[in-house]
Amino acid sequence: MTAMPPTTGHFQLIQFASLLAPAVYVILCTQPHEPYSAERAEALRSAIAHHELNNVELIHYNKVIEQDPSSPGFHEMWKGLMKKFGISKNDLIVASEPYGKWLADITGAHFFPYDIHREVNPAKATAIREDPLKYFTKILPEFQANVVRTITVFGAESTGKTTLSKQLAEELGGTWLFEYARPYLENTKNEITRKSMKAIWRGQAALQRHGQDFFNKPFIIQDTDLFSTVGYWQFPHWQKTLGECPKALIAEAKKMKSDLYIITRSNIPFEKDPLRYGGSKREGSDEYWINVCKAYNLPYVILGSNDRAERLNEAVYLAKKAFNNKARQLAFDRGGL
Q: How far apart are CA 327 and CA 216, in angstroms?
């Protein structure tokens, strides 16, 4: 299999084969210039281990080879490769594509087809490559992390970040992650100290790592992230209390930075809140948070409208664009072969 990308159908094929024979060899054929060569192999290995298919071994063949069956020597090349992999006439070729019969014929093995007409599982890698967002659930869970996009709604206090991020997650069918600082300060002691900021840093980092394990949804939508912690730590009026922002915090924020930061402007009425420390106004301006993005080279966009429906529509468009820009690598095609 080429498994571009690995699908739930690919894995069900492997499961079926594991029930037929005491030893199964999955031959994954990739080429060095293709996207996700190593990631495809790692995803399949992880799935095999996760489901404890102890009689299955993955062979990752990552070399440039002829792809056109009409090319001279194509059949002999594959016959030679299969012999190299150790095939014998007592072996079975298990495949969900008609070429399995041809491969069995040239090697003298026995062909065992599985779900060739996709009646058990309609997953098709071709359809996923054409529209990965629509068919996201058909991507092998162990590979999904390669195309999941993390979107953070970012900016000053009381600009609608929580409302927008929740709506965005619901609209996109994504996982929503709250801002860790709020429940922490509400349920411990509402004060900003170096100790409380370190706790918020620790909790926010754990929450973001926790979100990375969801993998069954195409988006992780965050109501701020660690760069908010960095931004608050660097407020000039908090420097006397907090001191210099820890370099380790900045490094961790960079390591887990989002694929897109959607900045909400301060163009809606300010609402007082016990966790807002600027009195009757926002502590940070729009420009301050934009400069945080610029300082750390974060990919960001600024929403212009103050209308909630327009904000949501724009945010949905931007999130899908970010997803498709990354997933475009999946559209790689071997010349239609």
A: 16
**What is the widest separation between alpha-carbon atoms in the chain?**
81
CA distance 17 to 12: 9
Residue ranges of domains in the chain, CATH in brackets: 8-137 (3.40.50.620), 148-329 (3.40.50.300)
pLDDT in tens, 210-225: 988 776 899 999 999 9
Q: What is the pTM of this model?
A: 0.86
Separation between Cα atoms, residue 231 and residue 284, nearest integer Å: 9
CA angle 85, 86, 88 (to 5 degrees): 135
**Residues of 40-60 as b/e, b for ≥16 C-beta within 10 angstroms?**
bbbbbbebbeeeebeebebeb
Residue of 176, 146, 172, 149 lying closest to 161 (CA atoms): 176
Q: Following DSSP, what letter does each residue of 207-271 receive, concatenated?
A: HHHHHTT--SSSEEEEES-HHHHHHHHT-GGGHHHH-SPPHHHHHHHHHT--SEEEEEPS-S---
Q: Is 107 exposed, middle or buried (0-12, 13-18, 19+ CB in 10 A)?
A: buried
Nearest CA to 167 among 180, 183, 151, 181? 151
Cα–Cα distance for residue pair 95/115, rounded to 1 Å: 9
Give the HSE-up count for residue 325: Cα atoms under 13 Å, Cβ half-sphere.
11
> Are the CB atoms for 40 and 73 separated by under 8 Å?
no
Tokens 């809606």, residue located: 268
pLDDT in tens, 1-41: 999 999 999 999 999 999 999 999 999 999 998 999 999 99
Burial class of residue 169 (count of CB atoms within 10 Å of its CB; 0-12, 13-18, 19+): buried
- CA-CA distance, 282 to 270, in Å (whole number)? 7
